[in-house]
Amino acid sequence: MNRKHVFLLNPAAGQGQAIGMREQIENISQRLSLDTEIYETKEELDAQVFTSQLIKNNDVDTKIRLYACGGDGTANEILNAIIGHDNMELAVIPMGTGNDFVRNFGDVELFRNLEYQMTADTVKTDVIRYTWKRQGFSCSRYCINMFNIGFDCNVVEMAGKLKKKPLISGSMAYLAGVAAMLVKMKGADLKVEFEDGKVFDGKMLLIAIANGCFCGGGVKGVPKALTDDGFMDISLIRKCSRRRFIQLFPKYAKGEHLNAKGADKLIIYRKAKTLKITANGEPFTFSTDGELTKAKEIEFEIVPGAVDFVVPQQIESNK
């Protein structure tokens, strides 16, 4: 089967670092005799539109490796174009704020090595299909890493504003967002229906629905999540005092909070194949791989092994 490498460079990512990769991509492609194409995205959803057109115009007998050179949002756009196409592979060159999905596979720096990426094998990874509804409108899409609702989502929104300021990195912006949101301690009032019929109905601090462990630039909020086990991990933290959350957060960031004293009374942690969440009032904001949307109701479903994901390994001769 023929193979083609297509790089989608997000000019907004990494303060323009993605654009600076062009020469390196061309040099490696020439040295390795690889068929390569480079495209600079121009606006939101452009990566998805370009990828959909690429799929339409290319032979199904050509294996195409698509490189998301940007953040989790760029990868999400490509993901939503390639689902259902067996000749498509997803690679991520992490240059965004969080770069959280690649953290599930080891050293983030390996993912920034173009030659490792261009010569690597793929693994099958699950994704989450979600359908959200609001004011009679319904939309279905896919998520590769995590959804956040409540406090975590509020932090993502605040971090998005802070990261535009000079000298504030992704993880720093997230921690600054946490500090800002501690003043308000906003959560969410939701009805959460699990697949076995159990229901949580009321106010909560946050809920994460996850395929991967990490959010916010390395915060391990959903520590038992596996990208290939055929389940979503759901982590729900009930409303609690500011003091209790401050005590818990250091363990939460390291993924050690499930064993903390009193955690069993504060946290609901479950694995599931499906889930439904409905607002007990006005539509709520949710974050999908870092992108914000409002919904009145969302249904989630795991899709096992839906994507061939490129996982680079260090080349032996370069160790």
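The record above closes out task 2.4. Task 2.5 opens with a second protein, given below.
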Amino acid sequence: MIDLHYWTTPNGHKIALFLEESGVPYRIVPVNIGKGEQFTPSFLNIAPNNRIPAIVDHVPLDGGQPLSVFESGAILLYLADKTHQFIPGDLRGRNETLQWLFWQMGGLGPMAGQNHHFVQYAPVPIPYAQERYVKETARLYGVLNKHLADGRDYIAGDYSIADMASYPWIVPHVRQQQELADFPHLARWFERVGDRPATKRAYAMAERINTAPVVDDETRKLLFNQDASTVR
């Protein structure tokens, strides 16, 4: 049994996608980040960076005590290695998958996240920041679009954790001011991943947990005004 400490963000969706695809038994533990639940001692014990998602594996492969893992990319890799699913076993296939997983973790996620912040949530519009991150998001869409131009169905051959990591960050493409029609190969891949039954189940589950994500003045303080004192 896996406990998934989760909220309905792109990084949270990644792990739900894996668990729905793999059939690994899991239990959702909601962490409402708009209410500050990411700062509770019980959550910080397993996720010291006060960010969702995190998991607790109650049956780790070493047979020891329950094992916690934080950071969405690390969780995807842990689950793929545990189940021998959604990551190739050969050297070249594994490394291609990991390169694109880290591309998402180091590029698409952080840049699209800054796009979301400055376009949607910043209290004062900053045109330079908005342009900077909208353009960088577009560049990253272009990188993936070019990679998929050879007609492959998925990012690293077969469906893998690379696809699960990237798809949730493309879902909010309208809010990111991106037109999927400008990226036809990416759009084809996006539709294919979205049509997978496990994808539909994961997003339906998310809607049951959080039907109206809202950033108001109170949640803005929790989400966007952290500094070193937050972790002291």
